[in-house]
Automatic annotation (TrEMBL):
Record keywords, A-Z: Monooxygenase, Oxidoreductase
PANTHER family: BLR5498 PROTEIN, LUCIFERASE-LIKE MONOOXYGENASE
Keyword Oxidoreductase: yes
UniProt protein name: LLM class flavin-dependent oxidoreductase
Top-level taxon of origin: Bacteria
Keyword Protease: no
Domain Luciferase-like per the UniProt entry, residue ranges: 28-292
InterPro entries found in the cross-reference section: Bact_Lucif_Oxidored, Luciferase-like_dom, Luciferase-like_sf
Pfam families found in the cross-reference section: Bac_luciferase
Length: 305
């Protein structure tokens, strides 16, 4: 289940691991990563989404992870929901929830890459309003409401009551205010190259304020992700990964962002974890930049876990 941060800085932060979904790999790597994450100390296993990229299908990898793990919680980080049909996505995610026996948390957002929308012939405009409408549609689908009065319900019903928890990938104040009406928390995407203490503290403050303004009495789950690399050629690997991933926004921005990705030593990784923890976040998703399962062992050694 989702944990919740207290008002002050939390003494611990859950450490989650992301599958190397964005990098080309095959059956062997999926097996080793899923089993290694499930056997390790990781709180969650995350699967991100891109369409116009070399990445694997998010729902396919989620289904594989559901079958290959027993303990770890599964996350989407994040589903670009307005690029999907909401009923179909509700069906897919409910299926994963059943395959994992109720271990799924669904991170959703609108994304910022028009190319991914164009690749699936989805409109790019009015993304936030469409997201809100789709959340309502998915929850109705999970509750057994037919998509049309003359149709049967779309199953299967999820294991978790009311469906998997929904976490928003909101960044700005308007998006946070909207998310406060339906989300269990916020998955912040501003720290991917290097977490900044002041920025994360500001995010936490603004999210909690949005929850209060929406009349919420529960505390939002706060999570964020970072790219990192350890082992041989870690610095070069991290820089290459960041540049390739962000090149869609132009070489100049991609280079600047890649240059700011500095978590490529055990010390830098430990400091990043401390920064996220001290900001009061509940969970940190580590995003590996290699398909080598040995990165799991290197990470555990670096963090002493």
């Amino acid at each position: 289940m989702l944990s919740h941060a207290p008002e002050a800085a939390s003494p611990v932060v859950d450490i989650a691991m992301t599958l190397p979904t964005m990098l080309p790999h095959g059956r062997t790597e999926v097996l080793e990563w899923c089993r290694g994450i499930d056997e390790g100390p990781w709180s969650s296993l995350a699967v991100p989404e891109r369409v116009a990229y070399t990445s694997h299908s998010m729902t396919v990898q989620l289904a594989a992870a559901a079958a290959l793990t027993e303990r770890v919680r599964l996350w989407t980080t994040i589903v670009v929901l307005p690029s999907h049909n909401a009923v179909r996505m509700a069906k897919d995610l409910a299926s994963v929830d059943r395959l994992s026996d109720g271990r799924l948390t669904v991170g959703v957002g609108v994304g910022g890459r028009e190319q991914d929308y164009r690749a699936v012939a989805a409109p790019f405009d009015r993304r936030w309003q469409r997201l809100d409408d789709q959340i309502a549609t998915m929850r109705a689908t999970w509750a057994g409401t037919p998509p049309e009065p003359d149709l049967d319900p779309v199953g299967p019903p999820p294991v978790q009551p009311d469906g998997p928890p929904l976490v928003s990938g909101a960044i700005g104040p308007k998006a946070m205010a909207r998310a406060a009406h339906w989300a269990a928390g916020i998955d912040d995407g501003t720290s991917i190259t290097r977490p900044d203490a002041a920025n994360l503290a500001d995010v936490a403050t603004r999210v909690r304020a949005a929850w209060t303004e929406a009349g919420r009495t529960d505390k939002p789950h706060l999570s964020t992700s970072i790219w990192y690399a350890l082992g041989p050629d870690a610095e070069t690997r991290l820089h290459t990964y960041a540049f390739d991933y962000l090149r869609i926004f132009g070489d100049e921005l991609a280079t600047a962002m890649a240059d700011s990705a500095t978590i490529h030593t055990p010390k830098a990784l430990r400091e990043a974890v401390d920064t996220v923890r001290d900001a009061g976040f509940d969970e940190l998703f580590l995003v590996p930049t290699t398909t080598d399962p040995a990165e799991l062992d290197r990470t555990r050694e670096a963090l002493g876990i």
